[in-house]
């Protein structure tokens, strides 16, 4: 049976460290500040925003929330971002996605100052990540890398298969594994014989958003499985992108869903905000 990589426990440990560092910064007169911008009434986005606010409060980070109506124009949102870019109390800016269709998401993300881009989505920060000198690392891939480290997984020389090529998880996590000297295969919807690719992997990172798409039988004996997917099946059941029970029989270590990668994402957002505040010292 695989060892469970407990994201909740790892996140709690990191949050305690963030809280201690935030308290030290306060003694120097600096309170790390995160601005969260929500446009519209998307129910899932509202839940995420409230979770981020609570997480900030728990570790002593100041959070400022801006709730804008769904019919907000792009110019109005750009003006708010410009104001936040110049606000010395704010060290991180997060615009909750998805945005309403009248707003060009790319233009908004590019308007955020790279020095305050707590999500790590600005093209400047993506470029820095690719050359191995990141200013901000995208929160979910950052969380994945921390989990691997905490679980004692050495990536150097290993075969890593990433399933999913999104800009938010798949591509950045592939580059981050490359920086750790892994040999990385990035798979996607057009990949031929996915099962064969996955079965070669020492580490599988699944981030495709399809319930239990990665079959347990595909997992190599002793491989490490990181399941980024969170998929609702029916009314209440949450499952990942990997067949958890079957994969657990073959893997040496695996992340559960829920309670795996999920808790790490917001934790790394807090970490990015803290790091930004420290850069101002």
From TrEMBL:
NADP in keyword set: yes
GO cellular component: cytosol
InterPro entries from the UniProt entry: Aminoacid_DH-like_N_sf, NAD(P)-bd_dom_sf, THF_DH/CycHdrlase, THF_DH/CycHdrlase_cat_dom, THF_DH/CycHdrlase_CS, THF_DH/CycHdrlase_NAD-bd_dom
Annotated metabolic or biological route of this protein: One-carbon metabolism; tetrahydrofolate interconversion
A Pfam short name: THF_DHG_CYH
Keyword hit for Chaperone: no
Catalysis: reaction(s): (6R)-5,10-methylene-5,6,7,8-tetrahydrofolate + NADP(+) = (6R)-5,10-methenyltetrahydrofolate + NADPH; (6R)-5,10-methenyltetrahydrofolate + H2O = (6R)-10-formyltetrahydrofolate + H(+)
Sequence positions that bind NADP(+): 164-166, 230
UniProt-listed GO biological process terms: L-histidine biosynthetic process; methionine biosynthetic process; purine nucleotide biosynthetic process; tetrahydrofolate interconversion
Tetrahydrofolate dehydrogenase/cyclohydrolase catalytic domain mapped to chain residues: 5-119
EC number: 1.5.1.5, 3.5.4.9
Subunit structure: Homodimer.
NCBIfam families from the UniProt entry: PRK10792.1, PRK14186.1, PRK14188.1, PRK14189.1
Family the UniProt entry places it in: Belongs to the tetrahydrofolate dehydrogenase/cyclohydrolase family.
PANTHER family hit by this protein: C-1-TETRAHYDROFOLATE SYNTHASE, CYTOPLASMIC, C-1-TETRAHYDROFOLATE SYNTHASE, CYTOPLASMIC-RELATED
Function comment: Catalyzes the oxidation of 5,10-methylenetetrahydrofolate to 5,10-methenyltetrahydrofolate and then the hydrolysis of 5,10-methenyltetrahydrofolate to 10-formyltetrahydrofolate.
Protein name: Bifunctional protein FolD
Organism from which the protein derives: Citrifermentans bremense
Gene: folD
């Amino acid at each position: 049976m695989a060892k469970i990589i407990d994201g909740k426990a790892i996140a709690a440990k990191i949050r305690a460290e963030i809280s201690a560092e935030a308290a030290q910064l306060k003694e120097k007169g600096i309170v790390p500040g995160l601005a969260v911008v929500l446009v519209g009434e998307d129910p899932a986005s509202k839940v995420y925003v409230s979770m981020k606010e609570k997480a900030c409060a728990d570790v002593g980070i100041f959070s400022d929330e801006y709730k804008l109506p769904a019919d907000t124009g792009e110019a109005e949102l750009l003006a708010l971002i410009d104001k936040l870019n110049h606000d010395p109390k704010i060290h991180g800016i997060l615009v909750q996605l998805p945005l309403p269709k009248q707003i060009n998401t790319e233009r908004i993300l590019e308007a955020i100052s790279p020095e305050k881009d707590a999500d790590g989505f600005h093209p400047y920060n993506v470029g820095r990540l690719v050359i191995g000198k990141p200013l901000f690392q995208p929160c979910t891939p950052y969380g994945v890398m921390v989990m691997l480290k905490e679980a004692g997984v050495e990536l150097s020389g290993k075969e890593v298969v990433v399933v999913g090529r999104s800009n938010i998880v798949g591509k950045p996590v592939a580059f981050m594994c490359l920086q750790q000297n892994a040999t990385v295969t990035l798979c996607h919807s057009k990949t031929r014989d996915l099962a064969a690719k996955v079965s070669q992997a020492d580490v599988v990172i699944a981030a495709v958003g399809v319930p239990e798409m990665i079959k347990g039988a595909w997992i190599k004996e002793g491989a490490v499985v990181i399941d980024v997917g969170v998929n609702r099946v029916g009314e209440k059941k949450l499952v990942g992108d990997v067949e958890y029970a079957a994969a657990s029989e073959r893997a040496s270590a695996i992340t559960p869903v829920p309670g795996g990668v999920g808790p790490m994402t917001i934790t790394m957002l807090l970490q990015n905000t803290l790091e930004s505040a420290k850069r101002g010292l």
